[in-house]
Specification:
Length: about 525
């Protein structure tokens, strides 16, 4: 086989592209700046309406969400009203970029790609969930001995397994930021050791530290956020900036040991900004509109009780004194994810609900139609009846305003079937409600609780309210970026936005392979 090119992808998970560019320009991020000066830069865009849960599976496969079926950590079990967690078998439906390369004889090193299963018979090495955000499957490696070596040599990731924690003190936020800094440093060491010890043609490492920092520390960066505390920031500095600097240093340390003829791609698949949107109001709105009937009173035939662990957790949680709840919050979250999340009924009366809410994040919400022939107790006939229902529901949603500002709460409502085509379309929400995010949303779990109350009003809905108690102050955005440096790539800026779906087939082509029957197209400017 002739000599193959070598490709290294370093991804910063859920970073803010504007911050990366501005901090590269002012010298805060010198290694990102050096890559940008020597490479091709451009903007990327993730999956419309599903850019939180579908981003990484869509990148990995080059397929839209309707063709791989992954859009959230919890999915709807087909033929039921039950949410179940994604399992590795769900991710085995489609071949990933690295599996394609491996089968073609390329040697790969796949390190901590989010929402990636452990690939069988991989020609190379793989680490799964060494310190990733929203870990779903647990830490494992191929070969198995690599995991023992990592835990013995580098250790476990310094940050907690679940980064969410309400009511952190300023000192606890600083401690958390320090854990992320140490995590980025350890990740660089781990990457350098693996790349030095193993032959490879393709390698990818993902820095999830930026993801956790964006969710938990955004109010230390953004003065417009209701939880922004000037005194806390004066003492600690911009903690998002601190973590980004650590990631930049880690990237520089890795690149110092990479052969100069290696093509390097710095990648941000989706972004981060302040948390916003009125997703919390949607269940109440659907109830007020008379299209969803929540589950109340005695359970009807066929409606099972929540799993016993859920009942026990909820009961015990209510008895925990408020002053110590934050200390056990992470344990509660882990139990919810790994025990009670094995199957949860959606709390609606399906016999009287034409549609129901599906969580897809704060900035975007999902709505599922209760269709005859698809749902067990479907009420809406597919086709003309469902279309008329959607037209009216979209009209009613767009009519709701923030009573304080008179701005519409909903920016737009997307029909999933008009965005995506594929055999798993029926597993996705039917409508995607994109909320207006002109203003940041406060929370009772950070700062003083200012700005935590959401309100919406329309003549049909009346006034609806909800209080945000979630401890995150940052949330995802659909925009991302890339920087590519290597032989034959001219330093410039791409004059168009590319889809995340285009990246996997581009990377495969760079290494002399093809990914057939995917939705993305190779980017010519990245192919020398």
């Amino acid at each position: 086989m002739p000599d193959q090119k070598r490709l290294l992808v370093l991804a910063i998970d859920a970073a803010n592209s504007s911050l990366l560019r501005s901090w590269a320009a002012d010298g805060t991020l010198p290694n990102v700046a050096a890559l940008m000066a020597a490479g091709l830069t451009g903007e990327t865009r993730s999956m419309e309406g599903l850019y939180i849960g579908a981003t990484w599976p869509s990148f990995s496969t080059g397929l839209n969400p309707a063709r791989h079926g992954i859009w959230w950590l919890l999915r709807l079990r087909p033929g039921s009203y039950q949410r179940v967690p994604c399992v590795p078998e769900d991710l085995a439906r489609r071949k990933t970029l690295w599996e394609t390369l491996s089968e073609a004889g390329r040697r790969v090193a796949v390190l901590d790609v989010p929402l990636a299963r452990q690939s069988p018979r991989l020609n190379g090495v793989q680490t799964v969930e060494w310190g990733v955000h929203d870990a779903a499957f647990g830490f494992r490696t191929s070969p198995r001995r690599l995991g023992r070596d990592i835990l013995t040599g580098v250790g476990a990731h310094p940050a907690p397994a679940v980064c969410d924690k309400p009511q952190r003190s300023p000192a606890e936020y600083r401690e958390f930021a320090d854990q992320l800094v140490r995590g980025a440093t350890a990740r660089a060491l781990l990457t350098r050791q693996i790349l030095a010890a193993e032959p490879w043609d393709f390698a990818i490492q993902v820095f999830s530290e930026a993801h956790c920092a964006g969710h938990q520390l955004w109010h230390f960066h953004d003065p417009t956020h209701p939880a922004f505390d000037p005194e806390a920031v004066r003492q600690s500095g911009d903690l998002v900036r601190v973590v980004y600097q650590a990631v930049d240093t880690a990237i520089g340390n890795i690149l110092d040991e990479v052969p100069p003829d290696t093509t390097v791609v710095l990648l941000v698949l989706h972004g981060m900004s302040y948390i916003g949107g009125a997703s919390l109001l949607l269940p109440k709105i659907l109830t007020r509109l008379g299209v969803t009937t929540p589950l109340r009173g005695p359970r009807q035939r066929g409606q099972t009780a929540p799993p016993r662990p859920v009942t026990l957790i909820a009961s015990a949680w209510q008895r925990v004194p408020k002053q110590i709840r934050s200390r056990v919050f992470q344990l509660r979250q882990l139990i919810r994810q790994r025990v009670s999340g094995r199957g949860l009924k959606i709390p609606i009366d399906p016999a009287r609900s034409q549609c129901f809410f599906l969580d897809a994040g704060y900035t975007v919400s999902g709505i599922r139609l209760n269709l005859v022939g698809r749902e067990p107790q479907g009420l809406l006939a597919p086709g003309a009846e469902a279309d008329r229902f959607c037209d009216q529901l979209i009209h009613d949603l767009l009519d709701i305003v923030n009573p304080g500002t008179q701005r519409p709460l909903v920016k737009r409502v997307l029909r999933t079937a008009e965005l995506y085509r594929g055999e798993y379309l029926d597993e996705l929400p039917d409508l995607l409600v994109e909320w207006d995010v002109a203003e940041p949303l406060g929370t009772t779990a950070a700062g003083t609780g200012a700005g935590a109350v959401l309100k919406g009003f329309s003549n049909r809905v009346g006034l609806v309210e909800a209080t945000n108690t979630y401890c995150r102050t940052g949330e995802h955005r659909v925009e991302g970026m890339f920087v590519a440096r290597g032989p034959g790539i001219r330093p410039s800026r791409l004059d168009r936005v590319i889809s995340n779906l285009d990246l996997a087939p581009t990377f495969a082509r760079l290494l002399g392979c093809d990914m057939p029957n995917v939705d993305g197209q190779p980017v010519p400017e990245l192919l020398n």
